[in-house]
Amino acid sequence: MSDFICTGCGKHAPIDTLSYKCDCGGLYKLNSDAPKFNPALVDQSEFSIFRYRRFMGIDTAKFREISMGEGLTTSVKFGENLYLKLDYAMPTLSFKDRGAAVLVLHAKNIGVKKVLQDSSGNAGNAVAAYCARAGIECEIYVPKGTSPKKIDMIKSHGAHVTVFDGSRDETADACRKKAAQEQIYYANHVYNPIFYEGTKSYIYEIYEQLGRVPRNIFIPVGNGTLLLGAQAALGELYEGGLIEALPKIFIVQGERCAPLFDAKGAAREIEPQPTLAEGIAIARPMRAREILGSSYAGEREVILASEGDILPARAALARGGFYVEHTTAATYAAYLRYKESHDLQGDSIIPLCGAGLKSDH
């Protein structure tokens, strides 16, 4: 059985609650008795993230009604000590399908008829697509300046798009206000911890594909949806004796919006500047305290991607055959810059989070 626990006051809530946060204002975490990762429990006959459904803390009986074959993206060698995980090779062309598939399945399980969500584009597109599969009405808020191609994709799934004249954080505030006033289910990838049950699969796949986990993992972080899932899965592998040591996690932020860089316990108050790395341009990450106060037992470091390095990094990846969006290029740029001034031991892996055509203006 699973339920939610408030990270603020510790109060429990049923997993079928329609509230996106506790009465005290705290965000929920999932309390689940699902087994930890065990290769013997992986469904080898299923070729989607739901091969790992035994490790998800929700009812997955109807997953075939929702799944579009998301996951199992390739880990490709790129240079001597670097792997690229092709997470843009998803049904909606970004890694957000991992979490959206599980979250929308949960919404269908508990009888939700309409959802609201805010996004810089990728998460909104993923939620819209899976809601279309589930027969759930969907409205997505995006900030002004979002890539028109991402907006077109969201609309193509039958979702209503509200383009809000404000920053990414102001857009989220407006969306939550409407969800509360109209009592619409807030299917948000930041607030709802069910999303992380899907992003755990990122690490499960790396382990299955390589038989190990690279020594360094670079993860772009805005709200931390991939980071939180990855940390949970790495903890499962380590505690289960499947890996001997935890990898170092590099938390990548863009230099023009880096509230977690040099932060102590809580995010720094910053004034975000326009950036090509729109996917991580989050000035007020809602789970900042959870990210910064993580119980992850391995080493972590927050590093910056220089704005001027993003386009050259994108071009370099494209010349190697990988055409990615700017936020992904920022992660590669940060990796290259870090290597220039540090002796990076062992091999590394970077997620190619989004396809390039989605972010071309």
From TrEMBL:
Transmembrane segments: none annotated. This is Putative threonine synthase. Gene3D superfamilies: 3.40.50.1100. Keywords: Lyase, Pyridoxal phosphate. PANTHER family: L-THREONINE DEHYDRATASE CATABOLIC TDCB, THREONINE DEHYDRATASE, MITOCHONDRIAL-RELATED. GO terms for biological process: isoleucine biosynthetic process; L-serine catabolic process; L-threonine catabolic process. Residues 77-350 form the Tryptophan synthase beta chain-like PALP domain. The keyword Nucleotidyltransferase does not apply. Its cofactor is pyridoxal 5'-phosphate. It comes from the Bacteria. The keyword Lyase applies. GO terms for molecular function: L-serine ammonia-lyase activity; pyridoxal phosphate binding; threonine deaminase activity.
